[in-house]
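Give me structure tokens for this 117-residue protein.
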Amino acid sequence: MHEGPVTIFEGCTASATITGGQVLAVSGSGTLAPAGANSAAVVGIAIADAASAATVRVYVPAGVWTSTTPTGVTAGAKLVSGAAGTVETIGANTFEKIIGTALDTATGGNTVRWVPV
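Here you go.
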């Protein structure tokens, strides 16, 4: 019996042409593209080719999770834990507390999909 998150994720759209095997990074709210050099927004690896604007099949080793954000986050932002089990954008000098990367942009009080580190 499988427990835990599904690591094959198909919930984002390609914002550029993607080739299977490329490392992918968040490129906008709900979109992924091939990662640039030293990208801080990497979330997984493309399983198959995808044309721009098509659904992307991506291997995400730690899975994709959904949590509430009290203050709002921007897609691609590094996240830390917030009060009461929420997630929020990293603050100054808190790099050692990063828990993941936001896949979507969300306003305060709403949910955001994110990938753990």
